Amino acid sequence: MAADTFAFKGTFFHTPAYGQLEALRDAVVVIQDGKIARVGNSDDEAALMREFGLSEVRRLKEGQYFVPGFIDTHVHAPQYKFTGTGTDEALMDWLKKYTFPAEGSFRDLDAAHHRYALLVKRFLANGTTTAMYYGSLHLEPNLILVDTIERLGQRAVVGKVNMDRHSPDDYVEATADGIRDAEEFIKYTQGKKCTRIEPCITPRFIPTCTPELMKGLAAVAQKYGTHIQSHISECCGEVNCVREMHPEYASDAAVFEEMGLLTSKTVMAHGTLLSDADIKHLASRGTAVSHCPLSNFFLGDAFFKVNHALSLGLKVGLGTDVAGGIQPSMLSAQRMAVVNSRCLRAHKLAVSGGTIVTPEMEKDVITFKEALWLATVGGAQALNMEDRVGTFAVGKEFDALLVDTNLGGTAGPFDVFEGEDDLQRFEKFINLGDDRNLLEVYVQGKCVKRGDTFELEAAILKSGHDSDRPMAAPTPAEPNAEPTVDLAHQPSSDSPASGEAEEPAAKRSRR
Ligand code: GUN
Ligand code: FE
Questions:
Q1: Average pLDDT estimate for 428-435
Q2: For the region Disordered, what residue ranges are annotated (predicted)?
Q3: What is the gyration radius of the CA atoms in the chain, in angstroms?
Q4: Does residue 163 sit in the same domain as residue 278?
């Protein structure tokens, strides 16, 4: 048997089409060199074992299922630090008061190293096998983010944030420096030749970027064929600001178009205030929107209409938008997408002033099946990875979550009762489950997390090639932080954070 060939037998849930939940029962799935080599059934088992020289096929227990790994199309990596707090401001003040100071504090590279390990572990533990990350403004911490993702085995698209105006004096860059650093970041990331990690051009949003910066970044994206990400038509404060700054353009979409930033590898977050004409425009460019329902509840002023956008041909993925969205979990994002859709229905009824629910009012409603599609296939489409991930189709890479629905009582987040079938158990997982239900997390056919262990990191530690301290999963916040130090309020300094372990020489050298 080839070392990289193995097989599972059991039930695999996925959503090959929007709204269609398919259960592959008693399926035998063979994984070879990280890819799904065959999907057969019980009858094929013996033949598959012979064909692939397998001495065993691992059987899932009753109540255990595989589901494709979740794809988060919009996360701000440094904002994980304050997620769950700072929920009291509208976007423009929220950026000034919480976000820019927190992101700037990642200049402390020791802190960045430690915090990014916590971030990536948290997301992997919650089943996010792929994330489209915003880093921060400064180049160096972004390199640490990429290193961390590489070490822990996640799949990611990562961007260095660019912003050259309307930003705090200590969190802004000169236009030419920003373009140069964005290119440096791309070279560093592509230079790793890690097939899981792709760089991204990341003009933060229109208000903080000059046309010169945006055009320069578009040229870099074109030169290197990279993804692009930004925020579009997120809320009234942002949209009104852009109208004042760019009265010559009718909408955010028109500005981005002029700057050359709408491509088939672009993901725009939010889009709650996009007009139909804007949506059609983005769709015509192959640009996607990352729907971030929980963030939109806090920072947006409107609802994104998933079904309507899809009907206009737009690619739509799902995002947590940590920390605008306060939960670092794509299970939460799926639930919030359903709730968002039900709010649209309730809103229409309220506007009607009556008690008759019309079919028109139902049009925006999505179920957990559609939400799961958004979190898997929709995300894959948004990131142009549809041929690689999102379903259990032969030829795709095996990014998957082993779900266990057997953890009742205090051991898990929900209980299962007699007579409940696998569909009901799986729906309970989507609606009630959490990281405790995820026994194993696979990326490119590698188990990157099993129980409390992050397998890739554990292997590195065992081989002695990295002197990082092991951390349990999910890792405790800021371990050894004695005495307590609030890193966000530390001046950028070269001294290691109080109580942090000595930094390995390899990491120091980047300064
Ligand atoms: N617009 C510009 N920056 C941000 C950010 O960090 N989060 C959100 N939600 N919107 C933004
Ligand atoms: Fe965002």
A1: 98
A2: 465-511
A3: 23
A4: yes
Last residue of a domain, one of 361, 383, 405: 383
Residue 230 CA to ligand 2 centre (angstroms):
8
Q: Tokens 């188990």 appear where?
A: 447
CATH label of the domain that carries residue 346: 3.20.20.140
Quote the ligand 1 centre to 228 CA distance (angstroms).
15
Alpha carbon nearest to ligand 1 atom 8, residue: 324
Using most ligand atoms within 8 A of CB, pick from 99, 206, 241 the residue to mutate for ligand 1. Answer: 99
- The number of distinct structural domains making up the chain is 2
Residue 489 CB neighbour total at 10 angstroms = 8
Residue 480 lies in a domain: no
**How far away, in angstroms, is 321 Cα from ligand 2 center?**
5
For ligand 1, residues with CB inside 6 Å are 76, 91, 95, 99, 204-205, 231, 234, 295, 299, 321, 324
Atom 7 of ligand 1 has which residue's CA nearest to it?
324
Q: If pLDDT is split at 50, 70 and 90, which confidence band does 448 have?
A: very high
Q: How far is the CA of 133 from the centre of ligand 2 (A)?
A: 10
Taking 90 as the threshold, does the pLDDT of residue 489 lie above it? Answer: no
What pTM was estimated for this model as a whole?
0.92
Same domain assignment for residues 119 and 186: yes
Average pLDDT rounded to a whole number, residues 446-471: 83
Residue 402 within any structural domain of the chain: yes
Residues contacting residue 442 through CB under 8 Å, at least 6 positions apart: 69, 129, 398, 399, 400, 401, 402, 448
Domain that holds residue 312: 70-383
Residues 35 and 158 placed together within one structural domain of the fold: no
Contacts of 169 (CB under 8 A, 6+ apart): none
Distance CA 453, CA 438 (A): 12
Are 60 and 76 in the same domain?
Answer: no
Together in a domain, 356 and 404? no
Nearest CA to ligand 1 atom 3: 204
The bound ligand whose nearest atom lies closest to the alpha carbon of 74 is 2
Question: For position 43, which CATH number holds?
Answer: 2.30.40.10
Which chain residues have CB less than 5 Å from ligand 2, an ion? 269, 321
pLDDT tens for 14-42 read: 999 999 999 999 999 999 999 999 999 99
CB 49 within 8 A of CB 22: no
Q: Is residue 495 part of a domain?
A: no
CA of 54 to the centre of ligand 2 (A): 46
Do 338 and 447 sit in the same domain of this protein?
no
221 located within any domain: yes
Q: Are residues 243 and 199 in the same domain?
A: yes
CA of 76 relative to ligand 1 center, distance in Å: 8
| Residue 257 and residue 218 share a domain | yes
- Domain end among 463, 478, 497: 463
What residue's CA is closest to ligand 1, atom 11?
231
Measured CA to CA, the distance from residue 507 to residue 24 in angstroms comes to 45
